[in-house]
Each structure stands twice: as C-alpha cells, then as structure tokens.
Amino acid sequence: MKTGKMEGFISMRAKVFVRTRTFGGLFQKTKKRRYRTPPPSTAFASASAAKPSTVNRLPSTVNRQPSTVTDTYRHKGLRKRMVDALRRRGIADEAVLAAMNAVPRHFFLDKAFEEHAYEDKPFPIGHEQTISQPFTVAYQTALLNIKPGDRALEIGTGSGYQAAILAALGAKAYTVERQEALYFSAKKLLGEMGFRAVKCFFRDGTKGLPDFAPYDKIIVTAGAPVVPEALRQQLAIGGILVIPVGEEVQYMYKITRLSEFEFKEEMLDAFRFVPFLEGVAKKK
Prior knowledge:
disordered N terminus, 11-stranded mixed sheet, 13 strands
C-alpha cells in the first residue's frame, strides 16, 4: 500500500498514553511519557520469542511454488542474507525472522525485479502501489507479537507478501484490498502457494472487516490522519493494532485494547506512507 518514493523509516521516538472512552467521548489521561526509543537491538526484545514448533513448521507451509517461478538455492541464500541484515538492524523476534526466511519474497514481484528481491527496498507492483521494504514488514510484524491461532486482520493486501508472513507465523489471516486488480492477483498467488489460512476480501479498508471481528491483531499498511474508529472497535480486548498515523510524516502507533473502553497507545518511530484511502477501485 506504499509507494517506493514515499515509504521509509525516518527516525526513532516514542510516546505512551492511555485513552478511555466515556459516554462523552474520548479523553486522554494526564499520565504521559515522552522518550526516545531504545536502540533497535532492544526495541523489539519484548516481542514474542520464537517457539521451536512454530519455526520448524514454516518451510512446509510455503513449499508449493507458482508454476511461473522457482525458489532456487541462490534465492534462499539471498533470503538468509536479508534476514541477517534485519537482525543487525534490530529485529529481534526470531519467529518473524524465520517467517521472512521461509517466504520467498521474489514470488510477489514482477520478474524484472527478481534479482533485487532481497534488497531492503520497496518495489512497484502496479496501480501506483509497492511491496514494502523488508525492514518495514519485519518492524510492523514484530510489533504485532503474532501467536499461532491469532485472528489477524490486514488492511492493504497489496502483493500478498505481508499476509503470507502472518500466515507463516500461524495466524488465521484476513486481508482487505481496495484495488480490485491487486485483490485478484494476490488471492490467486496465495492460493497457489498453499496459504489456505489467508482469506482475501475486496473491500473499503477504512471500515475494517466486521464480518469476522473481533481480531487479536490488526495491521494497516497506509498512513491514516487518525485511527479509524471501526478498527478500534473490531479489536479484541487484549488485542494489538499497528498503524502509521499522520499527514506527510506518519508515526507508527501500537494500540493495545485494555478493556471495552480503554486503549493504550504507543507512538513509535517515524515513517512515510501514502494516504489511507476510502472506497474501492474497480479493475479496468
């Protein structure tokens, strides 16, 4: 859901506060902390530790290949190098790293970009959209703290790569795309790869997907000026929503639902995303 020109990590800072819904609306508690985030090596240390049973089953999840592309030893070597680079940049959740090592990113790219698939860059996928750079995918996924069996909603299917990562981690993934052409291509590819746990929908992502709510985890891959209330309300108690919020520059928010009316909000690092748009775009 991001363009290569706009997407990117900018800086590290954080703010934590709690919002409570009352009958009169939302108010912000006075308790607030502003601070710079710890170094990346510790920023993700609290994410879920990789359980051997989770990591070991990943390769069998993605051993089916689309008929038009193969996953060679060279691709696997490049993928391992990508994962090692993510680890050096501070991604400490080994389950996330194992999933990204298992899912062939080049399957989700045009053939023209195959040789560069494991560089830390976004690439175009058509319709003025891109596949996110690996660091962004790993960053957001680590914040979600996915556990096997989690019901996870993704807003912005794009190429289908992020949904595949969620499924490889053991989540029951639901993904919504507003571009009909991308919806069809991602659904076809994920099916060919054997990701039966991923359910794809052509919908307006600003409304979430109430049909299967509540969700344990929700991830948004476009910048919203405010957090859509629909997504808050579709989050299970104890669930986590990860969403970039802002106008020209967005800060990554991790929102945890503490109770029916109370949400903990953590404002983390700065990124650039394209706008989170309402409505749908039909295939031409």
